[in-house]
Amino acid sequence: MRNTTKTVTTVLAAGALALGVAACGAPGSSDDKNGALVVAASPVPHAEILNYVKDHLADKAGLKLEVKEFTDYNTPNLSTQDGSVGANYFQNKPFLDDFNKKKGTDIVPVVTVHLEPLGLYSHKVKKADQLKKGATVAVPSDTVNEARALKLLDAHGVIKLKSGVGNEATPKDITANPKGLKFKELEAAQLPRSLDDVDAAVVNGNYAIEAHLKPAKDAIILESPKNNPYANFLAVKKGNEDDPRVKKLAKLLTSPQVKKFIKDQYQGSVLPSF
Questions:
Q1: Which positions are tagged coiled coil (predicted)?
Q2: Which CA distances in Å does 196 have to 9, 60, 153, 190?
Q3: What is the DSSP string of the chain?
């Protein structure tokens, strides 16, 4: 049986500091190199990939692995920083850089594993050019993913962004909006549920898959994997990169077996990045 812990986001947010107090030397924490490596992960696809490693590869490699599922984009880094977990697997480099800057954390990437293409979805139109004048498009509310969403729309001619805008782009940086689209900022996890209430939504790949959307098939616009900076990786608190458990997991996550699992399981909706 998989040793996977599902935790409600609101409880986690309130208890993150309390967890940190108890983490020092606790089994599975970053201080206990002989215990199981506890990894914080988004449920899909990250926890699924980790559970594949746990069920099929970890024992042979001498790795004890525990997977904790988190449904938000903040608690995994906070828990990694305070030692409640030994590593996390859910994010991309622009998001991590922004998080470290804003929260004063020092989380670092270990190994890149996969890309989840960001996509524009709609229950009301089949093509982006069918969006009506004044249509409402929901986008992620966090800084990096909102910029990523706007750049996706820019790349497909839906809007035009100010030249040179980076990972802090907001609707204020739109220089051309032919359809007069209105943008609704929502927490990333809420975006799939918003599709009945808005005309379209830009949804992160993990949340799309979790909501039984198939990015490769259902997205009316899909991010290209070519030269894409948003691949997801295993991350740890700085200084823990050489933890032997982390090294074992990094090797397993980039193994031929995991590459095959990703390709077979997600059919192009998640792409190996190694």
A1: none
A2: 23, 46, 20, 12
A3: ---EEE--HHHHHHHHHHHHHHHTT-TTSTT-TTSPEEEEE-IIIIIHHHHHHHHHTHHHHT--EEEEE-SSSSHHHHHHHHTSSSEEEEEEHHHHHHHHHHH---EEEEEEEEE---EEE-SS-SSGGGPPTT-EEEEESSHHHHHHHHHHHHHTTSSEEPTT--TT--GGGEEE-TT--EEEEE-GGGTGGGGGTSSEEEE-HHHHHHTT--HHHH-SEE---TT-S--EEEEEETT-TT-HHHHHHHHHHTSHHHHHHHHHHHTTSSEE--
Reading the block at residue 179, the tokens are 């359809």
pLDDT digits (tens, 9 = 90+) for 146-158: 999 999 999 999 9
Place of tokens 């812990």: 5
Question: Can you tell me the mean pLDDT for 223-249?
Answer: 95
The predicted model scores a pTM of: 0.77
Does residue 2 surpass a pLDDT of 70?
Answer: no
Place of tokens 């077979």: 264
Q: What is the pLDDT of residues 197-211, one digit of tens each?
A: 999 999 999 999 999
